[in-house]
Amino acid sequence: MSSHKSIGNIARWLLAVATVLVALLLIWQCADIYRVGTSAANQGANGVRIADIYSREIVGERFGRISWSVWIWLVLFVVSLFLHSDQKTKENVRMQPADQLKLLLVRKEKTEEMLANEKKRKMMVGAVAVVCVICSIGAIWYLTRPSSFASRDLEPVMAQMMFHVVPWVVVAFAAVLVGQYFYGKLVKEELALAKKAPVKQNKPDGDQITSKTNAKKQTIARLIVLALAVVFIVAGILNGGMFDVFVKAINICTECIGLG
Amino acid sequence: MDKKIGAWWAMHKPTKRRLIQVYAALLYNAHIKGYIKGDIYTGPIKNVCVPGFNCYSCPGAVAACPLGALQNALASSGNRAPWYVLGILMLFGLTLGRTICGWLCPLGLIQELFYKIPVPKLKKNRVTHVLSYLKYVILAVFVIAVPIAYSAQNFPVPAFCKYICPAGTFEGAMGLLANPVNAAKFSMLNILFTRKFIVMVLIFAACIFIYRAFCRFLCPLGAIYGLFSRLSILGVKVEAEKCTNCQKCVAHCKMDINRVGDHECIHCASCVAVCPTNAISFKCGKITLMKNETSSHKESDQNAKPSTEKKRLYSGIAWAAAFVLLFGVMWYVNRDDKPKNTKPTQPVQTVEETKESKTKTEDESAETKSEEVATGESMDRESAQSEATTEANDDTPVGYEVGMKCPDFTVPLYQDGGEFSLSANKGKVTVINFWATWCTPCVAELPHFQKLYETYGDQIALVAIHSNLVTDDVESFLQKEGLKMPFGLDEDGSVISSLGGSTQLPMTVVVDKDGKIVYNKVGSVTYELLESLVKPIL
Hints:
heterodimer, A: mainly alpha, extended, B: alpha+beta, three-stranded antiparallel sheet, 11 strands, 10% strand, elongated
């Protein structure tokens, strides 16, 4: 049984490698078709291409070249599927420390040390939030400037946008990740403290409790959104918005689906 | 053996959710004829959006994609407020919320099927949790900021569709290219397709290793519906009185949720079965649609049998109604008689067929001409007869393929109220461009035609024809753009249809001095290409 399982594991890993291989080969062939199609050898007078970059024949021929990898993938897929089908999918679900702490805090009293730790955690969240706000201001400033989108030549515009917006996004996400790391550490510390903390005397109050007032507020909010949605749809039908959707949907904007 | 098969089936039989996902995918893509003919559905159902992610350029799609519609509505927000799409999204968000992602999204189904491939999986962790916020960035930048930024310039840029959307590449582009009828469309492919194909492969490959990778990290539609998580009527609900905060549901969930029913929860209801206190159920308002079955038996053992029978009955009625709807939609969208606003798809004609159609066309045109003469609105009888004689002597078949004689057409012009006629420009090289204000590549290439007109205007005839229905004020658009070349109108699509086009823009046709077509292609053109086409035949 265990050898059967290990063979199954090997097959799954091999299939993973084959999947990555097929994906890389597909990407490589696609990029190579484009490279050959746009090379100097395919440029005629006035910069006009002698032959099209893609054609059914070219794509067929290129796909034929990597078909072996697809066959290998298919064989491995069938083998893995067969071996996998006997195994019950067992999900290894492990409760996160933050969740454990949440659960523990329902019935444990907060000590001073825990409160100090909680303060540190809040400060951490605040610091990360400040970094995120600064980053979003940086990105929004670029995105809302009309000069950022002055040209209709979209390739350089998009490249510039990536150049100006992506660093902000990366910094914000990095800050969140770093924040999460330290937050996790603090949570673990607090979890250890919470385990030693005395048990709460009063009844536990879960944070998922929805009070009747909240339910009432929710109903009012729902009614407002529903009314707004209906008004918007009617206004849209009257101002021709629905016809716009129709016209776009019955025509193929070739560029929108990537045809060019 | 039978036992083994039985056990296998018990383990692998499709769940209710999977069946509903498949059903939704079939309903969204019920236009089977589109896959056979290689063209898209153009009927009135496309006035409405489906709740899930489904490219409306897919040959099978029967309705509009809400995200594509939103981008285009925002892209044209300079002319018209996007109330309709916003209203639709609010309605879907309020009623269904992210239940759409879990139950009604074809792209979600594709991702889940990819995840079924038995390879080692990457479970949710801190990084995936942080990355789940990336979709809000995508929503803000590609769906909102870029289309709005360009809307002021009358230049529609649905950036998400153009640069990221894997559904557009898979369902739209590849769905069309897979049909041999569309073999000519391969010539349009360039860097855009290369890039989008690579993005699609990366996303789908990621979905094999990571549960719903696109849905969790990139999908802006999920981000929109996530905003309605507290309000949505249908979905997984937690009974506060029963909940012990054990967090088993969160640990069991494959999505990056903090709690059941939050903005990341797709309401797949897999947590219903793992809740030890049966606090979780799938509800529509106050009606419970799904709860832990074992618990209900324990709680009310005596009433269990009748309630199960009732449930089965209701379930059967619901499925029957669903299938009636599916087959009804299938019949409606695949039937032969075309609805209003539908443009006929021009079949590829052989030379023989074209010759036959030429004879018919000549007969019809002869009739039309005679009628026009009778009302005094056409050329005089003598010149009509002489032209007919000349055409009769020319053996070149009339059609839209290169080498064929271009069929005559007349379109009204925008600028001076006159009209442009191909026959009136006989003896001149004629360049015909089909465009529309809502088509990004069309608007982008208009300056190339303008430049050609300015350079060779006295030697060639050029007309840019706004085709496939008008949505905006074209005259004000032309004034803003400052374009001086002749602009015509083909509102019912008859001219583009006669030249072999159907639902795809932009399209350019070049006709030589003898009236024969030397170029007829769908796709963007450059000035260099136009010049290289026109210059040798002047």
